[in-house]
Amino acid sequence: MLRGGFANPRVKNALSDREGGFTRLLPDDRVMPVHEAAAIYRARGVPLIVIAGDRYGAGSARDWAAKVTRLLGVSAVIAENFERIHRTNLVAMGVLPLRIARHDRLSLTGQESFDINGLPDALKPYGNVRLTVHGADGPRPIELACLIETDVEAGWLKAGGILAQMLQGERRPAGQE
Amino acid sequence: MLRHGCAPSQLNALAAVGTNPALREDPRYRDAGLDFYPERILMQDSSGLPVLADIAALFQAAEELGLQGAGTVRMRADLVVDHAVEVDYWGGADAAAKNLDAEFERHGSRFKFLKWAQGRFPWLRVTPPGSGICHQLNLELFATVVGVKDGVAGVDSLLGTDSHTTMVNALSVFGWGVGGIEATSVLLGNPVNLPVPHVVGVRLSGALRAGVTATDLALSLTAMLRRHALVGKIVEFCGAGMGALSLPDRATIANMAPEYGATMGFFPADAETLAYLRMTERSEQHVAIAESFLKAQGLFWSADAPLPVFEEVLDFDLGSVQATVAGPSRPDQKLGLAQVPQSVPPAPSESGPAIGRKAFAEWRYRHRRHHQLHQHLQSAPPRRRGPVGGEGGRARFGAQALGQDIPGSRFAHRVRHADASRAAKILGRARFRARRPRLHHLYGQFRPPKS
Ligand code: SF4
Predict the structure, then answer these.
(1) Residue B125: which region, alpha, beta or left (left: phi > 0; alpha: psi -120 to 50)?
(2) Best interface-test mutation with A: which of B6, B51, B181 has the largest number of A CBs within 10 A?
(3) DSSP SS3 for B220
């Protein structure tokens, strides 16, 4: 299942020069399958984010797509906009969808590291977080919108996903505001 | 819906916008949304299995952590095994039975899991393979229209894990298709949040002409409705023409709701709804309760009822429908019967059988391919790709989509167990050993951090 994540043969990850499910492991500078890189990052304790473009998540088999994202260790996805169902699924799996305004071009080299500040206070409907891009020319702050639509969704994210929330017994009883 | 847990502010918004759609943008109501807690969940095997696996894994993890009460589902769920069948045998009296045998062989491990899940979860009812398509069973067996719970009557509602769940809207049951994760969330007691919906009325007039089928009607309506931006909106049918449509006709139209982009294609309850309940052998008492409840609540439609408040009303004359065929490639395109010959590619020049072995293999491959594709796409609202009849898009699979998606022909005969012994046989065969299945290890990922 993990191998199926981000493995669309026609998609080209900007971090790699090959089409398909590849990425560049950094700082080692080795191109390898996404799931292998994810395993190495997990072992090193590096949290991951996805940076994408327009209509993120449009396409088929989306239930698995959101689960895989979570299982690969991705904690947030930054995109210009999200396909509706995939956004809900990401939130249910505890992955934070963040919207970047179209004019905020990130212009990345792939060598940057990122900080996301303002959590967990921003975990509410229409909250904002601050993304800091640490690149060669110093830190650059950018405001991002959290695409959380309801208090229920905020609860899922705080708990780390809907299943985790159940295990924490924090579910609000049905019908109570 | 109202009684199932909406907050008072949401009810106010619904009531206000419902009587005066212009209030939709009023800041008092704009962001209220509605928390929808459906009565039940309907799943088919392909999308329902992951839901059950997640819930089983979750309960197991809760048990291991010694958590009380985390593992409860308080609603009814039905899972119908209807997506696993493949046609290996045909053209013989025993073809159906042989195909069923092959299905059991091929999918034994899935069925074992389902059998186990049914024993483990009291809220789950699994309908064995060979019984019928989930939407038809929903109409004939599962839907209550009006159900009584703890002595209180209320309307039936559901969410399904197949996009064509809307078929049951024909029976005035509230419901539509969602993804598996959403279904899991609902089973675990969460609501689905939706904005106060736009309701578009479609006023039907006249009657179908002789020789025009429900399929023709559904195709013409779909072509008409796709010209309007209906995504995220609810379509409700009304007008004197509605009374002239049989329930199977309505089901054909409601089934197509995802094709015209609407969340639902809703038919209010009327005399035909009650007649269908009787025809499908629901008890007299049940029908009587349904009738008095619907009438008392003002939910019962009759030809002289005033037009409900709609955001927009579209008119459609049933008499204008002609015999049509969808295509040449997509269900929202249509051709009059007379145009069909020109749209068919010329026959291959070699003389020989009309369809050879190779052509058949190719057809079967594409047919299966479509079926898989359809399952993948099923929770996607159809994306608008230019004007009706335009080029491009999902052209290659569209033709098959037509055959798959329009079940009109299926209504000609009853699909429910033709002979009673058959169901017993199926059940007998499905008697699996209840063993703990190997669950996938998802739950390990979702354990809360140890503090
Ligand atoms: S043919 Fe299409 S609509 Fe019918 S059951 Fe299969 S997937 Fe669902």
Answers:
(1) beta
(2) B181
(3) helix
Of the pLDDT bands very low, low, confident and very high (cuts 50, 70, 90), residue A65 is: confident
- How many A from CA of B178 to the centre of ligand 1? 14
Instruction: Kindly provide the ipTM of the predicted complex, given to two decimals.
Output: 0.71
> Ligand 1 centre and the CA of A171: distance in Å?
34
Q: How far apart are the first and last CA of chain B?
A: 40
Interface of B with A (CB under 8 A): 4-5, 7, 33, 35, 37, 47, 50, 54, 57-58, 61-62, 65, 67, 69-70, 74, 179-182, 184-185, 188-191, 193, 373, 376-377, 379-381, 440, 442-443, 445-448
The 10s digit of each residue's pLDDT in B233-284 is 899 999 999 988 999 999 999 999 988 888 899 999 999 999 999 999 999 9
pTM for the full predicted model: 0.70
Percent of chain B exceeding pLDDT 90 equals 28
Q: Residue with structure tokens 């705080």?
A: A158
Give me Rg for the CA atoms of chain B.
Answer: 23
Measured in degrees and rounded to the nearest 5, phi and psi for residue B121 equal -110, 110
Q: How confident is the model at residue A172 (pLDDT cuts 50, 70, 90)?
A: very low
pLDDT tens figures, A136-152: 888 989 999 999 988 88
CA gap B253, B264 in Å, rounded: 10
* CA neighbours closer than 13 Å in the CB half-sphere of residue A26: 12
Residue located nearest, by CA, to atom 5 of ligand 1: B133
Write down the mean pLDDT value for chain A. 85
Q: How is residue B432 written in tokens?
A: 């699996």
Three-point CA angle A21, A27, A29, nearest 5°: 50
Coil, helix or strand for A112?
A: coil
Pick B131 or B200 by higher pLDDT.
B200
The helix (H) or strand (E) run that includes residue B177 is strand B174-177
Find the residues whose C-beta lies inside 6 A of ligand 1.
Answer: B 82, 133, 162, 164, 374-375, 404-405
Candidates B190, B194, B373, B378, partner chain A, best to mutate (most A CBs within 10 A): B190
CB A50 within 8 A of CB A44: no
DSSP for residue B5:
T
Task: Output the DSSP codes for B374-402.
Answer: HHHHTTSPPPP-SSTT-S-SSHHHHHHHH
pLDDT of B254 reads 95
